[in-house]
Amino acid sequence: MERLKNLSLEQIRLWVQDIGEPKFRAAQIIKWIYQKRVSTFDEMKNVSVTLRAELTESFSIEKMKPLVILESKYRDAVKFGFLLVESKHMVESVLLIDNDRRTACISSQLGCALGCVFCETAKMGFIRNLTQEEILGQLIGINDYLSSHGDKPVTNIVFMGMGEALSNYSNFISSLSIIMDEEAFNIGGRRITVSTAGVIPSIEKLINEGLNIGLAISLNAYTNSQRDALMPINRSYPIEQLIAIAKKYYDATGRRVTFEYVIIDGETNTKEAVDTLVKLLSGFSCKVNCIPVNPSGTSPVKIPDERSVEFFADQLNKRGITATIRKSKGRDISGACGQLAGKAVL
Ligand code: SF4
User: Fold this and answer.
1) How many angstroms separate the alpha carbon of residue 304 from the centre of ligand 1?
2) Has residue 340 been placed in a domain?
3) How far is the CA of 340 from the centre of ligand 1 (A)?
4) DSSP three-state, residue 128
5) Which pLDDT tens digit goes with each residue over 92-132?
């Protein structure tokens, strides 16, 4: 039986048309799946009994179960572990709560092949890409949680969970089209950001999609030798190429690219780092987001104190490079950047 949430909206519309149903039925079905988040066709009350029977015969729509829900004691983050359908694996997602924003940090792969040394997900190795249904299922599960707490649905999305979204390009793009469609999640490009370790050919493709989403590049180092050691992908796509593609992205989309910069004390926050970043990034509109490295299992990296992170960001700002500091949420639930690692549960 086909899984309905792996179909594009266009495929659902065509299926409805092929079985001789009027167009508006497709819109109704899409709303039931993605806005009302039903898990059986019988719940689709305004859909005829005959059509519901046809749907039941052709498709399945059960949801991914949240096996783990960990709420931060600071009330600013919730970490979820969703059991993938017909799988023994769990994928992790995080909800970040900040005033009016409800940001879902979504995973795109089970594990990751890119091997960044500061990252828990990397330790799982690469298991497989998530399907469109599994990417969207995280959003459905988070909206279920919000709704059960009388809260509004997700307002913003960052593809910064487990895995490299741009290495799962086709499922990432097909999920995006459903996330952005007004009959489904209706979240605009300005409220979506994809984070990448720097898969340049996919960034090229993304530029050609003409979507208006934000791009965040994990830079994390100021020399190629240092970045080679932290992020092996740098051997294929070094810093100069990343900066060139970031400029191209800005020129094509008008969206300022963010460089995520993990601060490892004594390594990535030196005076030389400031000087080099100023040289590399001057002259185009971008932002450096400083992220104090998070404690992660057995990782040997040194965690900086608050003052040294502030000092580093200050130095960049004084020299004309916009620098912000990401206040890490969800540290107490291992939901912060670089801390996600889904586990097999059976
Ligand atoms: S930081 Fe991102 S790209 Fe690097 S290993 Fe972790 S999940 Fe993969």
Assistant:
1) 21
2) no
3) 10
4) strand
5) 999 999 999 999 999 999 999 999 988 888 999 999 999 99
